[in-house]
Amino acid sequence: MSDQLTFAVPKGRILDEALPVMARAGVVPEDGFHDKANRSLSFDTTRPDMRLIRVRAFDVATFVAHGAAQVGIVGSDVIEEFDYADLYAPVDLDIGHCRLSVARLAGDEDGSTGASHLRVATKYPNLTARHFEAHGIQAECVKLNGAMELAPSLGLARQIVDLVSTGTTLKQNGLVETSRIIDITARLIVNRAALKTDPRVAELVAAFRKDAESRSTRDAA
Fold it and tell me: Which end of the chain is more exposed for a tag (fewer CB within 10 A), N or C?
């Protein structure tokens, strides 16, 4: 269909939690979506007017912001990092909880004491620069897409900024969390223009909002 809605979902940690939420909102992927051997990026859904695309989390925001997808799910870390003007996040889904934090090698007590300039390894250069700037420190951000925990021990960067859930990975790599930048949850995101022009987008927002409110009420009971 030429007027198919495209719904973008992220590979990785959020997706398993997002699928039940999506199903309750009427977004159910074809069986092939769940086949781990399936390398496709685009999938049909039980709705003939909607398809799913499964891409990297950062790309979810880009597809939606530029209108290639009309709706998506992504962590608030990605939304804050890019700050796209055409992106709107109307619903906090209350899943995918974690935090974006600063970490350094255990024992490196003077890692930032009195420093005016630091090299920091991160996938989030904008959030990182803003965080350190607020503390009077110029951060030279070394962009890594993974294996962040190796950077301090190999001398690539004194500190890292990365997602933290339990902190186990940091400990296993000899790192300690020193400060928290933001708490993160997954959000429903939409393209602003699509929200105004396509009533199906508004209907999806209402469905996801109803589910989130229902879960919140149930948890509070």
Answer: C
C-beta separation of 94 from 116 below 8 A: no
pLDDT digits (tens, 9 = 90+) for 83-133: 999 999 999 999 999 999 999 999 886 555 567 889 999 999 999 999 999
SS3 per residue for the chain: CCCCEEEEEECCCCHHHHHHHHHHCCCCECHHHHCCCCCCCEEEECCCCEEEEEECHHHHHHHHHCCCCCEEEEEHHHHHHHCCCCEEEEEECCCCCEEEEEEEECCCCCCCCCCCEEEEEECCHHHHHHHHHHCCCEEEEEECCCCCCHHHHCCCCCEEEEEECCCHHHHHCCEEEEEEEEEECEEEEEEHHHHHHCHHHHHHHHHHHHHHHHHHHHHHC
Q: What is the mean pLDDT of residues 131-151?
A: 94
Nearest to 104, CA basis, from 181, 183, 184, 179: 179
Average pLDDT along the chain: 93
Is this model's pTM higher than 0.85 or not? yes
